Amino acid sequence: MNRDPIVVLAGDAPEIEAFLAQRIYEFNSKTTGYFDGESFSGTQRDGSGAIRAGISGYTWGGCCYVSYLWVDEPQRGHGLGAALLSAAEEHARLMRCAVIFVDTHSFQAPGFYEHMGYERQAVVRDHPVGHASVLFGKRLQHKDA
Question: The pTM is what?
Answer without folding.
Answer: 0.91
